[in-house]
């Protein structure tokens, strides 16, 4: 008893994670938010921040980490991955979601801890029916999914899905109660042509035009050049777009949505680079591909939420 009191008492003033969130102080939130957006000065100061300083979250949403398993795995490899996830220690203050291939969702649902929610990797644009090869939102719900990933660059650029179609899918999924991980991101040539913001805002607008509410939307900024390439965006590159996305939401949707909506980063996130990325104020989590196929490494990425805490 005494020792546990002592142990607890060793860090009496250690700030809690949620205490760092700017929206806990509403007035300060409003003021600092307006100072923050559109501020290139802030980007500079953010990149020069002392590593031992307080790192706050600009948004008010809970840290969110999704694992996108894509078209990978077998019954055996997924059994092992689920077992590794079930035994991993995960920080409590994180929403954790995995997105297995459709054919393994049932296996995962029946064996994975309830601590982790399940997402589909895609869904049909409306009610199911005569749509060969498609999976409906109703079916995803029936099998226990709470989320769906929409607008992933592999669906945009390999399969050819267009902004408006993706927006309609999002609206339908939300109307049926699924959460949507709404992906946006520019290709390398678009970045090099200085069109990063234009591309991201167009994709964002297609979601905004379609969805009735942002309550269950998580925006995933995934630069296409960083996906599966091992070429991760620098924390500053990612932060720059995340700030811009939050600012876009503020101007085009509402200040409340800008604050509440999680904006997560995806593209070659791994156990080695997640902590530095997570320190950026507007990075509210990650969407992870390759590294989510390894349970311990995925757990490290989930637990990078701790780099948002004070290191003073
Ligand atoms: P990656 O994929 O982590 O393998 O780059 C990310 C994604 O596509 O969501």
UniProtKB/TrEMBL annotation:
InterPro entries, alphabetized: Aldolase_TIM, TIM_sf, TrioseP_Isoase_bac/euk, Triosephosphate_isomerase, Triosephosphate_isomerase_AS
One Pfam family this sequence matches: TIM
GO MF term list: triose-phosphate isomerase activity
Pathways per UniProt: Carbohydrate biosynthesis
Alphabetized UniProt keyword annotations: Isomerase
GO biological process: glycolytic process
Assembly with partners or alone: Homodimer.
Family designation: Belongs to the triosephosphate isomerase family.
Protein name per its UniProtKB record: (rape) hypothetical protein
Biological source species: Brassica napus (Rape)
Upper taxonomic lineage: Eukaryota, Viridiplantae, Streptophyta, Embryophyta, Tracheophyta
